[in-house]
Each structure stands twice: as structure tokens, then as C-alpha cells.
Amino acid sequence: MSGKFASGLHSPTREPTARTKLTGARYRGANAPSAMKIDPRRTALLVMDYQRGILGMIESSDALVERARQAIETVRERGGHIGYVRVALTPDELAAVPETNKSFAAAKASGRAPAHDGPEAAIDERIAPREGDIVVRKRRVGAFSTTDLPEQLRGRDIDTLILAGVSTSGVVLSTLRDAADRDYRIFVIADACADPNATVHEVLTQDVFPRQADVISTAEVASLFTG
Asked: What is the pLDDT of residue 137?
């Protein structure tokens, strides 16, 4: 899966702007997380589209993966669940993509669609899933519509989601909106999300997401949990 494909699905076509440093401080104040503690046994961290081909379009991706790793370890230590979401299509699924789907039809026509077993569609090995983790493969942008993720979350009695993903304007935005409509409590780890366009990332995390989610930093994940 090439960076061009990932950019087509996950981000606007504008050129990236200069990156800005993301810290927990910028998400406090009006957008500060709720003081209510959450039960780790009913919480899942969703690590979304952390795939080789997609990470390749992000500047400082090594630092991004490290922050995701830290968040994963924190949630594991507290007894929470970890879920991995990746985008990839089988040949039959790709052939079935209709022309009405602008982004996936373009990827299909260009030959840049992510093969389900291709190396660029693999989850980054530095944060690879462990036995017992939730792992789903999706065929569209959001984490819910083409997977059994809703059933897996219900089976574990999950009511709270923590989101980390690439890109902010793609899988994170789509999944947040869908999760909110499904009545999940939602947290977004802003510095474990990234977008090729830094301005888009900032608008979403500072102005859009707080309407339906609490926006936090990696350093603040541990403070969410009871116990």
C-alpha cells in the first residue's frame, strides 16, 4: 500500500503544512477530559491503521509509533483491552468496489489498493498484536462498518473507547463519529494520531472532536483509570 493510496483515503489533497509539537498542555482547559474515572475492564484502546504503508506518509513516524506503544503498554498494565484495526482488501473485495466510492474506486483504478496479505498492509511490528487482542481488517475508512468490531466489543462488555490512529481526518474521524452514534464514551489520544496535513489535525483535535470526545495526550492515559 503506497503512501499515495493512504493519502487518498485518509487525508485532504492539500499539501501538508508545517508540523507543530503536540503536548498534553494544548488539550487542557475547555477540552480537558472528564474527571470521571473509567473502568479498564470495560475500556478498549483502538490502534487504527498503524500499517507500514500508511505510516510512510507521516513525518516523525517513529516517534508516533513510540507514543502508541506507550499508550498500549499503559492500557495493558491497567487491565484494559487492546484492539487493532487495519485496512486491506482481498482481490474479490477490490473487484466489488463500486465507482460510486470516490476514494476506493480511485485506488482500485490506479492499482494502489492495499492487498490483504501485502507487507505494506501489515501492522507495524513494534506494536504488534498479542494473543487475546482484538484484531479486525476493514474494507472502508471507519473501523465499524465492514468489520465485526461491534460484536467483539459487545462480547467484552466495552463501553469506553480510546482512539489512536492514522490519519486523523480518515480512520479517526470516521470511527469517532460512528462510535459516538453507538453511545460509546470516547477519548482521543491526540499525539498518538497524525495526519499529513497538520492544520487539519489541529482543527479536528482542538475544535471538532471535543464535541463528542475527550481529547488527551499519551501522558494522560494512565490518569483515566480507576484503581
From this structure: 96
